[in-house]
Amino acid sequence: MNNRTFNIIRRIALYIAGLFILALGVSLSVKSGLGVSPLNSVPYALTLVTGMDMGLLVALVFIFFLLLQILILRREFKPVKLLQIVGSFVFGWFVDCTNMIVGAGAVIENYWISLAFMAASIVFVALGILLYMGAGLMPLPGEGLVAAVAQKSGWQFSTVKLAFDCALVIAAGVICFIALGGLGSVREGTVLSAVGIGLVMKPAGRWLNPRLERLLGSGDGDDDEFCGEAVIEPEPFED
User: What is d(CA 24, CA 28) in angstroms, rounded to the nearest whole number?
Assistant: First the structure.
């Protein structure tokens, strides 16, 4: 096995580990009962309304994001980005698995314990994003859509990300309000996640990113791309 092949295997392993940790963070937020992160607020709202598996709805919503990428980028959309479908279903399956592991359907009566679960969720989501993005493979469709809008509009990735998160929270709130008569998946935990994930990612990224670079190495000079998909640099890590 040559060095490049071994490097790709390590990246795939890191990518999968990151997705699992990210899914665990999502499940912990569901377990808390205080709301979920903006990116997962719409799938969770649809789960509350329809009773369908959250993992399946995560994958379907993410595929919708991919379709939006195709509409936005048109001829600039590279067919290899369709691999985001694989990542979406893997992540959705992980969400269903971690929901069972943490017993996401059970209600927590103590508010402070719920806050502790939400705090743990924020840490796991931040670490999961750092690991799966640090692998330098394909982003999930949410980040891919934000990158597509930033590419076509010329706006900064962080600016588009903020607007995207706000739109998702509003959409989730509207879905729950119309169908359930309340905000459902949108609660104080949603706000805590929106703020806290970035706050955790910045110092954690400073510590973790150099170690990931040493782990993965520089390869033969083009390992910063996977099948032509440039790695998105998470702006919260920057000074």
Answer: 6
